[in-house]
Structures are given as structure tokens and as C-alpha cells.
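queue> pop job 88
queue> type: inverse folding (structure -> sequence)
queue> payload:
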């Protein structure tokens, strides 16, 4: 028998704390985001900011669709890394270096966002490919150290590999077929966890860590609204209508924050564990995508409203951006309420649907409204929504 050679010292140092299972009965201790995860989030702050800046420069239907189309791979990259950390996180040098490489890939993706549908599509695709390949490598490392999770990891990795292969092929294909392959790759990626729902049920994510991480990403996109208010005011004279419009914009963002975080605890994951239905987890997860797309766009809508000429009707594109983005947010919250994912209360789902209809009416019929009036109406609807939730909780229907 050939003698086993000792591993080099530097390899032993790098693997001092390999991946470990962070879920299941043996791992139920409280968990919060690590310092490394919070540092990782910073690069997404920059990426979301670049996306918002791109949307700000092209406020139109095609501009919004282009913005949303680029938001999807960015968000999915963050989701992939977050789910890995939720189940298998460790604090060893290899893990830190992999996260550092991920951050470089996302930074490169952010750099290529502005012209991702034209001249920098190659760089954008290559950045996404590198990020996904790094995640696949991390999962392969997990199997080596935790062989019992092979039924969970292998199907995921196969799906992710097929998805990234389509992106690799797209590098050699001209537009618009390049973008068709992007979409096909993302569909395969999105389908992989759904098709493996049985294993998702057997290995559910940590019920405390994951909601916190989704909440932190929501804070990142809500931050765009705060930045927008500051940017708008910094470029304008402090006239009364402008200051009021900015304040109403902040009130709108604050109301959306209230409605989300008042309801978005670990209800979904607890319900998935109790019922054994992985579909609840999937609805909760994918239901966040239109929500964060809308929230980031709200910030740009606020900025354009603040920069618009006071006393004159808000331009149609800016009005639709602001009202349409808030409508998307309310519809997303209604979906999560209706399915009992964020809060098992049908009444609150109806409240959100009514709010979505009211805000959409502003977009449709508010062609004579000034920026301050548009923002005032939208903020007022948000205040009513918060008030309804508070009243419902006060009279004892908080768990309806």
C-alpha cells in the first residue's frame, strides 16, 4: 500500500475550519449575519446604486425593463451566496478568499451594468459566469466535507452548471440571441431549487438567519430612496414645495419599510417546517424579487419628483416610474400576505391590493398633478396602510 503523504502545511492552515452543516436538529442555535456577510453586502450596495443610476438616465418602459432584467442576475447571485452561507458557512481562510473573489466578480458586474445591453454585455456576462462558477466550487467543497448532503447539493450544482453553461455559450453569440441565452440560463437556475423541492424540504434553511439576510438586502434597496432624497435636495434650492416633496418621498419609503418589517419575520420558514411544504419557502423567496426591484426604483422615482419643476405637472414618465414602482411593491406584499408567507392574514393582503389599485390610479389619471401632489397622494396611501395595520393589531386581529 502506498503511504499517505502529509498535506502541505499551507493547505492544512487553509482548511482549519472547513464547511459544516449549519441546519438540522444539531444546529439550532441563534444565528445572525457574520461580519464577512455584511462586508460582502457592501459590494451590492454599489451594484444596486449603479443599476438605479442606469434607470435614472432612461426613465421609460424600455429603460425600466432593462433595469429589471439586469437586477435579476444581480439578485440571484446574492441569493446563491446567501443560501450557501445559511446552510454551510464557515470561517476558514478558503471561505474568506472565495467570498473575496465573489466580491471582485460582483464589482466587475457593477462596472459593466451601464452598457450591459450593448457594448459591455461580454464583460457583464463574464462577471456573472465567474460568480456562479465560484459558487459551484464551494458546493463541491461541501460534498467533500459533508457527504450526507450529496442528494441536496448534486442536483443544485447540475442545474447551476447547465445555467452557467448557457451564459458561457452566450459569449460567442451576438445580440439579441446572447440575451435570450441569459434568460434561459436564469430560468434553469431558478428552476433548480424548485425541482429539488423534496431535498429542500429535508434540508430547510435556518429559520432565523435567512429572514435576517433578506431583510438586510431589503434595507440596501430602501437605502436608494434615502440617497435619492439627499441627492435631489443637494441639487435644488430649498424652496418649500421641493422640501415638502422630498419629505413625502422619505415618508413613502418609511411606510414601505414599516409594512415589510412589521410583517416579515420568520413566519414563512416556520410554516414550511410545520407543514412540510417547500412551496411556501419558494413563494417567500421568489416573491421578494419584484419587491426589491420596485423598492430600488422607488428611490429613483423620488429623486425625479424632487428634481422636477414645482407647480408644474410631473412628467408622465416620472409619474409612472414613481407610482408604478410603488404599485409593484404593494402587489408583492399582497402576494406574500395572501399566501400566508409574511403574515397569514387575508385582510392585510386585501389592504395591499387596494393600495396598489389606488397608486396605479395616480399613474393613470394624475396627468395634471404636480410633483408635490403626486408624492403627497402616494405618501398618504402609505400612511393609511400603516394605520390599518396598527388598528388591526390594536383590536386584537394581529394573528387573523
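queue> result:
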Amino acid at each position: 500500500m502506498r503511504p499517505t503523504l502529509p498535506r502541505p502545511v499551507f493547505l492544512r492552515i487553509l482548511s482549519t475550519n472547513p464547511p459544516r452543516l449549519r441546519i438540522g436538529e444539531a444546529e439550532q442555535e441563534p444565528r445572525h449575519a457574520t461580519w464577512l456577510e455584511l462586508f460582502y453586502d457592501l459590494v451590492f450596495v454599489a451594484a444596486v446604486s449603479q443599476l438605479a443610476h442606469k434607470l435614472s438616465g432612461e426613465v421609460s418602459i424600455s429603460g425600466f425593463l432593462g433595469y429589471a432584467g439586469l437586477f435579476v442576475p444581480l439578485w440571484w447571485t446574492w441569493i446563491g451566496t446567501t443560501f450557501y452561507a445559511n446552510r454551510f458557512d464557515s470561517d476558514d481562510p478558503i471561505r474568506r478568499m472565495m467570498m473575496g473573489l465573489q466580491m471582485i466578480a460582483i464589482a466587475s458586474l457593477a462596472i459593466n451594468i451601464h452598457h450591459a445591453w450593448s457594448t459591455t454585455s461580454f464583460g457583464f456576462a463574464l462577471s456573472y459566469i465567474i460568480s456562479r462558477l465560484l459558487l459551484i466550487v464551494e458546493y463541491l467543497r461541501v460534498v467533500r466535507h459533508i457527504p450526507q448532503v450529496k442528494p441536496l447539493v448534486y442536483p443544485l450544482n447540475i442545474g447551476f452548471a447547465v445555467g452557467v453553461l448557457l451564459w458561457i455559450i452566450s459569449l460567442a453569440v451576438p445580440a439579441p440571441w446572447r440575451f435570450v441565452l441569459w434568460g434561459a440560463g436564469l430560468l434553469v437556475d431558478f428552476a433548480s431549487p424548485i425541482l429539488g423541492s423534496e431535498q429542500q424540504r429535508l434540508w430547510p434553511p435556518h429559520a432565523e438567519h435567512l429572514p435576517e439576510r433578506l431583510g438586510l438586502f431589503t434595507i440596501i434597496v430602501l437605502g436608494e430612496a434615502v440617497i435619492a432624497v439627499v441627492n435631489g435636495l443637494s441639487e435644488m434650492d430649498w424652496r418649500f414645495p421641493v422640501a415638502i416633496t422630498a419629505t413625502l418621498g422619505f415618508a413613502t419609503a418609511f411606510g414601505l419599510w414599516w409594512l415589510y418589517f412589521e410583517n416579515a419575520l420568520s413566519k414563512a420558514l416556520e410554516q414550511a417546517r410545520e407543514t412540510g411544504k417547500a412551496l411556501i419557502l419558494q413563494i417567500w423567496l421568489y416573491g421578494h424579487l419584484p419587491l426589491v426591484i420596485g423598492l430600488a426604483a422607488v428611490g429613483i422615482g423620488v429623486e425625479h419628483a424632487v428634481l422636477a419643476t414645482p407647480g408644474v405637472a410631473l412628467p408622465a414618465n416620472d409619474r409612472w416610474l414613481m407610482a408604478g414602482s410603488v404599485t409593484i411593491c404593494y402587489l408583492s406584499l399582497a402576494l406574500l400576505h395572501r399566501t400566508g408567507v409574511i403574515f397569514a392574514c387575508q385582510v392585510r393582503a386585501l389592504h395591499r391590493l387596494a393600495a396598489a389599485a389606488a397608486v396605479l390610479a395616480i399613474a393613470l389619471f394624475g396627468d395634471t398633478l404636480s410633483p408635490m401632489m403626486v408624492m403627497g397622494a402616494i405618501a398618504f396611501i402609505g400612511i393609511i396602510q400603516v394605520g390599518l395595520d396598527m388598528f388591526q393589531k390594536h383590536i386584537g386581529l394581529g394573528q387573523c
